[in-house]
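Record type: ASSEMBLY
Status: queued
Input:
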Amino acid sequence: MKPGRDTPLNPTVNDIARVAQVSLATVDRVLNERPGVRKTTVEKVNRAIADLGYVRDTAAANLARRRIYRFLFILPATNNEFVDLIEQQVNDLSQGLKRDRTQVSCLRVPAFDPMALADAINALNPAQVDGVAIFGPETPSVRDSISRLRAHDVSVVSLVSDIPSSERNAYVGIDNIAAGRTAAQLMGRFLGPVTGDVLVMTGSMLARDHLERRLGFDEVMARDFPNLTVLASLEGRDDPDLIERLLPQALASGRDILGIYSSAAGNAGLVRYIDHHRGPTHPIIIAHELTPLSRMALGGGLFDAVISQDSGHLVRSAVRIMRAHSDNAPINMAQERIRIDVYIKENLPPDPGSTTGG
Amino acid sequence: MKPGRDTPLNPTVNDIARVAQVSLATVDRVLNERPGVRKTTVEKVNRAIADLGYVRDTAAANLARRRIYRFLFILPATNNEFVDLIEQQVNDLSQGLKRDRTQVSCLRVPAFDPMALADAINALNPAQVDGVAIFGPETPSVRDSISRLRAHDVSVVSLVSDIPSSERNAYVGIDNIAAGRTAAQLMGRFLGPVTGDVLVMTGSMLARDHLERRLGFDEVMARDFPNLTVLASLEGRDDPDLIERLLPQALASGRDILGIYSSAAGNAGLVRYIDHHRGPTHPIIIAHELTPLSRMALGGGLFDAVISQDSGHLVRSAVRIMRAHSDNAPINMAQERIRIDVYIKENLPPDPGSTTGG
DNA sequence: GTGAAAGCGCTAACAA
DNA sequence: TTGTTAGCGCTTTCAC
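Status: finished
Output:
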């Protein structure tokens, strides 16, 4: 459409300068809360801003500022489809983000290793990065390394697994307690009024997300489904091979295991085991994160439900938040809330990598 | 963070001009595929563009162009919480969109009235709007009015309910057939191995989304749950009062109704009826769209599940697509795919209006 | 404390 | 067919 000479133009800095009777430079100082302006002048300018209903054109601002954002995602170096998905989203996004003068990259650090993570964070040069998104355990060393980043005004968001004790600017991920509750509700309803046991597979005691899911799961199972007994967790460390090895013992414990809640990663081990020991009936299985594997298991009827969070949304949200924080702009929290996705066979999004949207 | 003199700057039009040995104006002509450039020159410029890996800075381009986007959402004038939610999202977004030189507004037209909708669309001045998002029925008159818009290069997206026979640029909404299938799968599993009937409440035969949901629902019920019989639809026209009036007859038909699939709007009527005729046990109810009412019904155990689509995502996606189409830029389809959200009591997002994210 | 002027990457007259 | 130039809205020296 044509520029539209008919549409009312938004007020600009020039208008403010004119109305407030000051120069452009002064308007800019007030706008960016820079020092060196007399109080009365500040007020004059602010009045003009309010009167005109001025909204700053960030695009123009960034252009003039020649600003480039550099964001880093730190992810666990697990052999894990979900983490791979996140990395892929980062890489996919990096292309289009260049238009927005934003550079993103990934760094993998050993999983479940707080020291390695803290070291990696400490090795970062705060002058070379504007924001860091961290998917890792919550420990004192990690917390301290985050403090250092924040002290240098680097924006930090925790990803997937929160680090609330730190000074991170935001958490980007689902409410894991609610996710655990959701799994429990689904498990109980799918199972119906039978009596038996439910096995919970977790990843690591260090991982806050795993802990929270377990918490929520237990809460709802105890409250709503007294007919079902939740067994102690099997700690699989997100390792398919370990899980495949541990599973026989857990399942052969003489208990009547009707359901399995796989609350962490390493589902390949679970799938392999079930596939090889498939009886006439298999337990109700609820797992986490929609990945090629879980998608297949869901489609094939091996998994009954998958609780997930959208990797694309996760990454875009983290970037938006880090950027907003970098030029301390407001954040639309509604847009940034990551939903707890529930997938069953029927609402699986079409196609391979397209587990995304948001 | 500081501008980062260390980070490699992206190539600009000036670089292209220098490398291709032409002027800025010529580069611009090639970039925008404007006529009046010799073929060999075009090639020279394109070579430079490719060699340098140039990516255009759309922000700067729009700034220079003084471009303003005007988008219109046309919504049914039903007394409908979901539509209200969409309108609210549009209004909420309009604020922040001003920064992006984008104006959005809403227009309500009589619901289930193809002529009124077509008239409204035809009344639009193509010179005064860059894109239109339409939530309405698919009829020949509507189709024709869309054709006219498209002929004037106005971008058109269908919202919530697709209009595939038209020349709309895109459909923004969930796959309604899959949504119906999801509802059926949940219904069947929640009900378990019992025998009885399921009532389907629909809105209008004119509404493609309602039709598609019914289709998907029937398909899965027939395939997976032969123990359950799906009754003919009750057509509630999204009208709570009408629904409340029709419900008694439907439920007193002598059949054993174990489940209700409310595939359209007007849930207030359903809730009122059930509330007043609450027996020791009530049917499994699955409804659509997370709204204040359905949220409450879910929390209170009156509804068992809600299939939804995120109104915020819907609106943002529509805007992004209309904008992309306006400056024929590419669309990240992955981001624009609207997910079929499944809500149960446990994964209800916190708080009132915050049904959003994505 | 404040202002004048140059410039960010791109587009759009207007010349040539 | 091509080039020159001014300017979008904002920031940033550098002077006063």
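Annotation: Chain B has three domains: 13-56, 69-173+311-337, 176-308.
Annotation: The first strand of chain B starts at residue 69 and ends at 76.
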